[in-house]
Inverse folding.
């Protein structure tokens, strides 16, 4: 039962790599967006809020198609990134990571924003009266206080990436060893005669990975929570 | 010297506060909602008044006319908040040292951690997190944290309001030591008469966003015209005295001042200690002849200055003692008439020793100048 084929192992490793990069890559943007949404006061804030949440409500295929239009080889952003930085997304694993990051972004931003809303602004004020400038207050007071929210957001983003299918297959197709992550591999196996057992193996791996991610997050949050409550 | 001139619109009234205060403790005194906290928030830079100028020892912190507004983290103003506001994710030690990272290196030696830990008795809790401290400990850490940032001015917003009476009595001596030893001017917001009379050098009476009077605590508290603000029940005079002798046999302490002597229950303070004693108007009896055959140990010669009716049955007699100090006595109107009290009349004020308990006595800062004039503002 558990004789993984080379292609299946490849799919698992690729999935982990894509999910890890999607999570890490979107973190700075997610943090910045959450800060702007939680603290900013500007015209068009609700529009930004809507755009961030779009991937959550749009059909994934639509998101994937939009990514293809924007970041494809001839897309306006894809061409710029290729020319300036040599970064290519189209039909590469990096594209799968981008699609996953975009799909997980609303979940990441939501989790961080909720914890930012819960931060007692009066603590930041107090830090200010002690002489700390804004950046320092953010690094030493705000960031540690929202750490549980950041971790929750990262886990959600990671888990969402592991399950990403629609946007990925639309944007970067289903290329073995490059963009064939676990969901695409399962899909392919179910379309292949005799692929059932392989699909089942990958399904089990998928469930196990999700569980591990959740448990890790819970343990980390517990430790941080204990620190904050004074133990 | 702190100069405060601010005008600002608040939810239900306009803040219009102007005052000058020197060294020692300046108490912003008034009812809840009078605008006291807004004033110190403006000094700290947490509130930006629509119009105003705040100058601390020659440094302009705010001047709306010239578009000067020093951001709060550059004002070097320590702030002890009512609710402590300790950082929950840092230990007590890390909380205490938070502000040191930002104070100029050459001044860093001025406030040494060990001194502050000693002063506030915090050595036992240094490695705990705030979540496991008692209310009194939290406030002491908050005070220490503000001190260690090397502030040029300390702001305290009802630092004892969230504590019960026992905790208050536990922290007040630390505040007195702070006033006498740290030599940092303090702005102390409170609506408690007993805290203010114990700690304050100068009182700024605030009501509905305006300053009603500014002056030394002895002058402001002993005046009936401020009752609407200082409170009737607790009304009383504050006298500056010195410990003269202890009477071990009867467990009494003799206090002395220009007006004469006061005998109070035994105190621990050594002979020579400067103290402040508060004598409530309701604890003073007046006699027109030197009383004989009474149990009260304190009889002071005084002269009636003014009679102020305060209720249907009572009135307040403002007295001057031999050394020029103020004393207040509350009598029924009937007694005042029977005795024929009127301005200029020589009387004897009788005070029971037992009526003066420890709560009425506190260490005195010697910065206060007793013949300062009170400025009163009509608004």
């Amino acid at each position: 039962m558990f004789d993984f084929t080379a292609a299946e192992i490849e799919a698992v490793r690729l999935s982990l790599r894509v999910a890890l990069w999607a999570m890490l890559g979107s973190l700075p943007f997610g943090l910045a967006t959450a800060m702007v949404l939680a603290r900013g006061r500007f015209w068009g804030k609700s529009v930004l809020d809507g755009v961030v949440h779009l991937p959550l409500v749009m059909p994934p295929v639509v998101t994937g198609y939009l990514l293809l239009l924007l970041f494809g080889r001839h897309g306006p952003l894809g061409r710029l990134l290729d020319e300036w930085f040599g970064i290519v997304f189209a039909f590469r694993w990096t594209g799968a990571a981008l699609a996953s990051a975009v799909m997980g972004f609303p979940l990441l931003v939501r989790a961080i924003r909720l914890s930012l809303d819960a931060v007692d602004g009066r603590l930041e004020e107090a830090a200010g009266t002690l002489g700390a400038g804004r950046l320092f207050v953010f690094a030493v007071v705000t960031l540690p206080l929202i750490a549980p929210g950041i971790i929750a957001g990262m886990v959600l983003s990671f888990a969402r990436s592991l399950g990403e299918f629609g946007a990925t297959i639309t944007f970067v197709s289903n290329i073995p060893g490059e963009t064939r992550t676990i969901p695409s591999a399962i899909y392919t196996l179910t379309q292949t005669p005799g692929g059932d057992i392989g699909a089942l193996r990958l399904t089990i791996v998928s469930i196990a990975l999700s569980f591990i991610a959740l448990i890790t997050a819970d343990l980390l949050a517990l430790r941080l929570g204990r620190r904050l409550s004074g133990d | 010297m702190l100069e405060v001139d601010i005008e600002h619109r608040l939810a239900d009234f306009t803040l219009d506060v102007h005052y000058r205060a020197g060294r020692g403790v300046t108490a912003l005194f008034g009812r809840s909602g009078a605008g006291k906290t807004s004033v110190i928030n403006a000094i700290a830079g947490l509130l930006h008044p629509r119009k105003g100028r705040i100058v601390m020892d020659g440094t302009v912190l705010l001047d709306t006319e010239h578009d000067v507004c020093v951001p709060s983290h550059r004002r070097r103003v320590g702030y002890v908040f009512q609710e402590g506001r300790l950082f929950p994710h840092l230990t007590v030690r890390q909380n205490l040292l938070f502000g040191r990272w930002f104070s100029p290196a050459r001044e860093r030696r001025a406030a040494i951690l060990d001194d502050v830990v000693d002063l506030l008795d915090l050595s036992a809790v240094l490695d705990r997190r705030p979540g496991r401290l008692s209310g009194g400990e939290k406030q002491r850490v908050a005070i220490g944290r503000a001190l260690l940032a090397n502030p040029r001015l300390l702001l305290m917003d009802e630092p004892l309001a969230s504590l019960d009476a026992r905790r208050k009595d536990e922290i007040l001596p630390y505040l007195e030591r702070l006033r006498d030893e740290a030599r940092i001017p303090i702005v102390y917001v409170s609506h408690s008469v007993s805290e203010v009379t114990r700690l304050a050098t100068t009182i700024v009476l605030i009501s509905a966003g305006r300053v009603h009077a500014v002056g030394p605590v002895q002058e402001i508290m002993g005046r009936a015209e401020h009752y609407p603000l200082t409170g009737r029940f607790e009304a009383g005079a504050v006298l500056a005295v010195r410990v003269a002798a202890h009477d071990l046999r009867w467990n009494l302490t003799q206090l002395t001042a220009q007006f004469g002597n006061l005998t109070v229950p035994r105190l621990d303070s050594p002979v020579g200690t400067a103290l402040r004693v508060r004598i409530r108007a309701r604890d003073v009896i007046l006699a027109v002849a030197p009383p004989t055959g009474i149990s009260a140990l304190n009889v002071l010669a005084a002269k009636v200055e003014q009679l102020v009716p305060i209720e249907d049955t009572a009135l307040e007699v403002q007295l001057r003692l031999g050394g020029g100090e103020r004393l207040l006595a509350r009598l029924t109107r009937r007694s005042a008439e029977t005795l024929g009290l009127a301005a200029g009349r020589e009387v004897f004020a009788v005070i029971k020793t037992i009526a003066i308990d420890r709560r009425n006595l506190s260490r005195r800062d010697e910065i206060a100048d007793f013949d300062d004039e009170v400025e009163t503002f009509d608004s």
